[in-house]
Amino acid sequence: MGDIRNYEGMSVQERWNLLATVANLYYNSELTQSQIAERLYTSRSKVSRLLKEARKQGVVVIHIQESWARNLDYEKELKERFPLGDVRVVAVKARDKELGLQKIAEAAAYYLDSRIKKNMVVGISWGNTLYRIVSHIRLSNRKNIPITVVPIMGAADLKNPERDAMDLAKDLASAYGGKYRYIYAPLFVKDKKLKDSLVREEGIKSVLELSKRADVILSGIGSVADRSWDHYLGAKTLEILEGKGAVGHIGGHFFDREGQELSTSLSERMVGIRLDDFKNCKNVICAVYGESKAEAVSAALRGGFVDMLVVDEGCAGQILSPSKL
């Protein structure tokens, strides 16, 4: 095997044999790094470096068996076409909305969990998809990581308050044993004067400032066409927005097919982070299900609001079709 102290002077074959030996002791024999160090007369830090090198050189290949199938061709094409850091295209075979939403939630929860680090600030919006994501994390998570979860927008007048940003922030923080903050204001208030007054209140101002500096933002992307906000803004308001060119919304901000925010009275009356704050955050994770959202997602990607996208195969196919360019 050669002298472990002379790793740099070993031949390629000797290095490979050493890396394989250390990896076998760690992964198959289940020895601790300290035990391996003692056996090989070296330090624990040296063993740690060798294990990392074993993965880098391909001596160790870790395969994670995910519970959902992925369309890797679509993922590659989306990353080539849009400024995405990462993407998961979930293949949902059956035309079952409940199953599709569940798979999207699982994939997004799995990815979010891989990004969470201690002392992070996590911003969260609201909606059915995010409710499923947080529920999945609560059921599967057993970690104790000190994070702070904050809403990125004011509260909604929802029939199901557990799907609102305030309850979701509390539930996500609870899943990690972290802290949470609230924004004690609705998403849209009656006029700009009231909005300006509210955001100067220390309790609201401090949370918004924290949200703007979030390390990770978890959000959905809404479509104007699918009328999912009819119950909240009203059909007439959405028709007016659509007439002005709106195709989608994220964090309460409406944008056109080029990803440009529409200047409306809603944006002046909105309590929440700005659209530019999405662009400034390096880890905006968006989860979307349904072909009806393809145009909205395409526009959000053009606008550069999304860093990591979790989407179903049907929606991804529509985004990549020539008619959506």
List keywords for this structure.
alpha/beta, eight-stranded mixed beta sheet, 15 helices, 46% helix, single chain, three-stranded antiparallel beta sheet, 12% strand, elongated, 325 residues, 11 strands
What can you see in these coordinates?
- The protein has 325 residues and is of the alpha/beta class.
- 46% of the residues lie in helices and 12% in strands.
- The protein contains 15 helices and eleven strands.
- The chain has helices at 12-28, 33-39, 44-57, 72-81, 97-115, 128-140, 165-176, 192-198, 202-212, 230-233, 235-243, 265-268, 275-280, 294-303, 313-320, and strands spanning 69-70, 86-91, 121-124, 148-151, 179-180, 216-219, 222-223, 248-250, 253-255, 284-288, 308-312.
- A hairpin with a 2-residue loop joins β8 (248-250) and β9 (253-255).
- 41% of the residues are buried.
The portion of residues forming beta strands comes to: 5-15%
| Number of DSSP helical runs | 15
Low-confidence stretches: none
Largest β-sheet summary: 8 strands, mixed
Terminal CA distance: 57 Å
Helical fraction: 40-55%
Number of strands: 11
Give the strand line-up of the largest sheet.
Answer: 1-2-11-10-6-3-4-5
Instruction: Assign the structural class, choosing from mainly alpha, mainly beta, alpha/beta, alpha+beta, or little secondary structure.
Output: alpha/beta
